[in-house]
Amino acid sequence: MNSEYRMLINGTLHSAQKTFDVINPATGTVLAKVPDMDPEQVTLALESAEQGFKLWSKTSLAAREALVMEYSAVLEQHKDQIIDLLISETGKPLDNAEYDFGMLITCLKFFVEEAKRIDQPVLVDPDGRFHHYIQRQSLGVVVGYLAWNFPLLNLGYKLGPSLASGCSAIIKPSQVTPLATLLCAELALKVGFPAGVINVITSDNYAVTNPLLTSNVTDMFTMIGSTQSGVNCMQTASTSVKHFSVELGGNAPVIVYEDADITKAAHDIVDLKYANSGQVCVSPNRCFVHESVYDEFIATSKAHAQGIQLGVGRMEGRIMGPLSSEKERSSILARVNAAVAAGAKVELGGAIPDSHTDGYFMEPTILSNVSLDMDIVSDEIFGPVLAVIPFSDQDDILALANDCEYGLSAYVYTTNLQRGLQAASEIQAGSVCINEAHYSIQLPHGGLKQSGVGKDCSRYSLQEYFTNKRVSILVND
Fold it and tell me: How far apart are CA 66 and CA 82, in angstroms?
């Protein structure tokens, strides 16, 4: 495995004067060194993306599709190498890593196919004098900052619509997990993309990369990350008019009514909660369960979660990997301990496992007797902690679900159709799933309130990478 990786800028691979370390979270040891880009490389990336856009936006959709499909095939040919590298830098189990990689391929193929269905509608002229229509044109240079939890899925979310729409892209993967993304960038050289269409850079210094945000060359800034990071980046980028599409923090509520299928609800929530070690933006975080089924839900959830094993990579069974860093693990454990000190009960886990003292593993954790004033509820817990909160008929449960600055995802379990539809209407979240968590490439993904603006996935995402130009042609004097 390589000990040093290079960036893709203007169709060539680049090192830098400085590097930073990438840590294997399963062992806590240095996995590789990655370029910490130089200021002049930021300028080169912007200039090359600007030139790349001029070529790519004039390339026919059919020609773009051919290159994107060829790139997808190249990535598939190197699937095992990419996935092994992804596992090393993230600590993912094999099934999660395969999903992460698979979503990159899915996004590349979906968006270039969906681009064929971008409409250019004709608008009625009341006087019959003009023929009006909307012309969609490629937006421009896209700068995308990626999160560390699903590196390749995130790459697909941003690179897919960029390539399909005729935009050029400057992608900055997280400094925590950049390796598989850099390998995918290097493999793009096997395909005949014009120089500057795909640029993938790495840095651990925002002072160096901020010109990517402030430059007038940048037409769209898009990212996946925390709300505070998103606000900071948008503030920095507001030196000129730009488009923003940002998927930010979440604190997803779950409502389990007394008439729900409790076994189905408990298994569904546990499976989603501990997927990727709880490091998922749509992970259930505030789990409200009706008091009449509270004990049953706790017992069923605990039994299901006990079947999870800790490990990495190509192990059999239901596997959960480590957290991303010691800093994150310590923060989560501190909040668990604070909740326990305030009266919460540890039903399962709650500590560092004796069996995995290397790396950043944490036991799958379930807390009962949780109250709304605990940080474990009010803050997004990006880790394997399920906080279960009882509610009664006297509670306005939809108001409690909405009592949060975030609005990314929500989950409701009930067999009452009217109740489910009311919850879907009133819960303030970009996605509301009734009786099963479900996400797919053709469905828009994004938040309300402080969870961001814009969408990933679906035609709604692709539309953000085009302009809407109104054209009016005089037909009848």
Answer: 22
Distance from the Cα of residue 349 to its chain's centroid: 27
d(CA 288, CA 468): 43
Q: What is the pLDDT of residue 1?
A: 44
If we measure between CA atoms, which residue out of 239, 99, 219 comes closest to residue 167?
219
DSSP conformation class of 193: P
Sheet holding 7-9, edge to edge: 12-14, 7-9, 198-200, 168-172, 141-145, 218-224, 243-247, 452-453
* Res 418 pLDDT > 50: yes
Between CA 342 and CA 121 the distance in angstroms is 59
3-state class (DSSP) for residue 316: coil
Backbone angles phi, psi at 147, to 5 degrees: -85, 165
Give the gyration radius of the chain's Cα atoms.
23
Q: Answer for the pair 10, 30: CB distance below 8 angstroms, yes or no.
A: no
pTM of the model: 0.96
Q: Which residues contact 198 (CB under 8 A, 6 or more apart)?
A: 8, 52, 159, 163, 168, 169, 171, 185, 188
Determine how β-strand 406-407 pairs with β-strand 309-310.
unpaired
Taking each helix axis from N to C end, the angle separating 79-90 and 94-114, rounded to the nearest 10 degrees, works out to 120
For the stretch 374-415, pLDDT in tens is 999 999 999 999 999 999 999 999 999 999 999 999 999 999
Which residue ranges form the domains of the chain, and what is each CATH number? 7-248 (3.40.605.10), 252-449 (3.40.309.10)
Q: What is the Cβ-side half-sphere exposure of residue 419, based on CA atoms within 13 angstroms?
A: 16
Dihedrals φ, ψ of 53, to 5°?
-60, -40
Active site residues: 247, 281
CA distance 344 to 338: 9
Q: What is the pLDDT of residues 114-143, one digit of tens each?
A: 999 999 999 999 999 999 999 999 999 999
